[in-house]
Amino acid sequence: MSEKLYPQIESFVAYLRINRAASERTVEQYSFHLSELLKFLEPEIAEFEGVPTDFRTVFALKRKTTEKKGQKSRVRGFLLARSRSTIENLSMADLDAFRVFLVQKGLSIPTANAYMVSVRSFLKFLKKRGEPSLDPTMVELAKRRDRHVTFLESEEIERLFSACVWDDLRDLRDLAILECIYSTGLRVSELTTLDRSRINLERSEFAVRGKWGKVRVAYLTERAAKRISEYLSARNDPFEPLFIRHNFNPENLFSKGKNGESRPLSDDDVRLSRNFITTMVSRRAMSAGIVKDVSAHTLRHSFATTLLTNGADIRAIQELLGHSSITTTQVYTHVTNPRLKEIHEKFHQPRSSG
After folding, report:
1. What does pTM read for this prediction?
2. Helix, strand, coil shares of the chain as percentages rounded to 5?
3. Hey, which residues are catalytic here?
4. What is the per-residue pLDDT for 150?
5. pLDDT tens digit string along 298-307?
6. Low-confidence stretches of the chain (pLDDT beneath 50)
7. Residue/partner pairs of 344-349 with CB below 8 Å, 24 or more apart
8. Which residues partner with 218 through β-bridges?
9. Number of H helices, E strands in the chain
10. Right CATH number for 154-340 from 3.40.710.10, 1.10.10.10, 1.10.443.10, 1.10.3720.10?
């Protein structure tokens, strides 16, 4: 008897969390993609009363309240009882139709490919467990145009930093964030998890846990370490996150709950979100008169291209960025193209005749 698809997806999610040490955001993305596949195969289950359209409530997100735990349990029970799809009956025709469905929804090629990467990873998991499923190598990704990387030139970087005024604590924080990303090449998700106790400002370095739990060392420039130190010195709060929001009274560290009860603010209450940092970087770039579409990831790109143009080895840049594959890092070699002719003329000297 063939195994049902839904319980295997549950097992895969648990495998990502426990065996692969995937971040909650990564788990959420894989879970969402696979739940969309399940709904595509069985559209009627999404119409059942009480089943949320977004199955991430079942597969991925941690639920703290009794109400949400109850909802998760009810939906899980429904899917275990009603879902009919099996891994043995999942065909390549199903996956091809799913890909067409995604494109018809208006998703871009990279986004549709991300769904198929999740499906392929799931099939690899099944193969490892000896389940009679599709060969994951059959799932190919659609070809896409060469990736275009937006980065800031050195003049734009200086203009961005110089445009940060020093009026209040928020300005100190924003400048410290900008310097930190440009100095280390951190992903936004990595930046938001940083705590004070993990940063060694004397050595200007710290360990960061990236994708799939991979740990690497990030290095701060002297200027970045100075900006972070200035920001922390100006703070007067007990919170552990390195970067926090400041729309609270430091003399009254309490918040009102949904029922009106007063409770102490926690680290999670004040920790900055990915969206906040992305919006802040964009706003600061606009204030600096930079016309490019700048995000926090633009600073990560700028970190890599700065290293490359100054002669850093591509393998070293791969380690500093936390890329698992050198292929991902090689997208930055575009910045060396203007130097190719110069290098050719310098090192390829014609042989003497005679």
Report:
1. 0.69
2. 60, 5, 35
3. 187, 211, 297, 300, 323, 332
4. 85
5. 999 999 999 9
6. 61, 63, 65, 354
7. none
8. 206
9. 16, 4
10. 1.10.443.10
